[in-house]
Write a structure and sequence with these properties.
Order of helices and strands: HHHHHHHHHHHHEEEEHEEEH
Shape: elongated
Number of strands: 7
Number of helices: 14
Helix content: 40-55%
Oligomer: single chain
Radius of gyration: 24 Å
Structural class: alpha+beta
Largest sheet: 4 strands, mixed
Number of domains: 2
Bound molecules: iron/sulfur cluster
């Protein structure tokens, strides 16, 4: 095992990508980068990271920001509960920890939106605490290296991987070890077509010897995916249109969208007319013009979206009180889901 770790660290020293969050031990910056990178690739993530640091230079500044500003900066990354949790956690750090990021793993883990992986990343990169960062890349790398065919999505098996990593980490600098393992998984032991020909631990790799690489890692559960039918309405009145703020839990919480009618199945215009009248709090029916349909994929949902246009000469009164009147130049101050943004950009 020592020789394996030696080869991995040696490879890392010669191949590491220089990224801003690798050259800091500021827990706030590390936390921010980790949450952003759970949503996107490094190149795109860099822009978001820089934007956040520019706007909120400290956890204190983030805690004091209003949620709409944070959601607006987060726009395009999806999974908005992560942005809301960033805000909640920043407030807790401010209130319970006097603005200082907690230094104990268990306290970090208690913050909203921080799971075992992120807590380990902050603990090891900021404070050199020996907690292994077991992300998807490391799971895959370890499963292949040691030919482990236990499902990685079962928590009892997670412990087996963690124990193995803890053993490998003994005597190493935690931040370097964790970065090296994650970098190996991301850059060499890739999901498809791993670069075994340049892999520094190929001669030790049990998956390679047993020709099981393509089957590893093993997953037991397939994610359940549901389908939803969302009808969005561009309701034009004078030179503008309306956006409504979403309420309740679920996708796109608190974001703005075009007024929506959700149906159980795909429906025709005639079916929507009375529903739209209800939405607009009127008996009058409107001429609805079909614009486009879009399929939008989220982690657990397939969104079948349809966009419709309605022109009205009378100022509508909406059932939803959180409806705002805007226009094509001003709507950008509101945080909207990517799906809505893509549609509005075409107008
Ligand atoms: S030899 Fe191939 S499968 Fe094994 S660890 Fe290296 S890259 Fe991964």
């Amino acid at each position: 095992m020592n020789q394996i770790v030696f080869e991995i660290l040696n490879w890392y020293r010669n191949n590491l990508r220089k990224l801003p969050w690798r050259t800091t031990n500021d827990p706030y910056k590390i936390w921010l980068s980790e949450i952003i990178l759970q949503q996107t690739q490094i190149i795109q993530g860099l822009n978001y990271y820089e934007k956040f640091i520019e706007n909120f230079s400290s956890v204190n500044a983030l805690a004091k920001a209003d949620e709409d500003t944070i959601l607006k900066l987060w726009q395009g990354l999806g999974y908005y509960s992560r942005a809301r949790n960033l805000h909640k956690a920043a407030k807790i750090v401010n209130e319970l920890h006097q603005g200082q990021f907690p230094t104990r793993y268990d306290d970090i883990l208690k913050l909203p939106g921080i799971g075992e992986y992120t807590a380990a990343a902050i603990a090891s990169f900021a404070y050199e605490l020996p907690y292994p960062t077991l992300d998807g890349n490391v799971f895959r790398f370890i499963a292949r290296l040691y030919n482990i065919d236990l499902p990685i999505d079962q928590s009892k098996n997670r412990k087996i991987f963690i124990d193995l990593l803890n053993e490998m980490m003994i005597g190493q600098k935690p931040s370097t070890f964790n970065n090296a393992m994650m970098e190996m998984g991301a850059m060499v032991c890739k999901p498809q077509n791993p670069l075994c020909n340049i892999c520094p631990v190929r001669i030790y790799c049990e998956g390679y010897k047993n020709n099981t690489i393509a089957k590893l890692p093993v997953k037991s559960n397939k994610v359940k995916v549901s389908k939803r039918h969302l009808n969005f309405f561009l309701i034009e009145y004078k030179n503008g249109f309306y956006l409504e703020q979403r309420e309740g839990k679920g996708i796109w919480q608190n974001l703005f969208q075009l007024p929506l009618i959700e149906t159980k199945t795909d429906v025709k215009r005639e079916h929507l007319e009375p529903l739209l009248a209800k939405l607009l709090n009127t008996d009058k029916t409107h001429n609805i013009e079909f614009q486009q349909s879009v399929r939008h994929l989220l982690t657990h949902q397939i969104i079948e979206a349809k966009f419709w246009k309605v022109k009205t000469n009378k100022k509508p009164t909406f059932i939803n009180p959180k409806t705002v009147y805007t226009n094509l130049s001003d709507y950008k101050i509101f945080a909207v889901p990517k799906l809505i943004e893509n549609y509005l950009l075409l107008l």
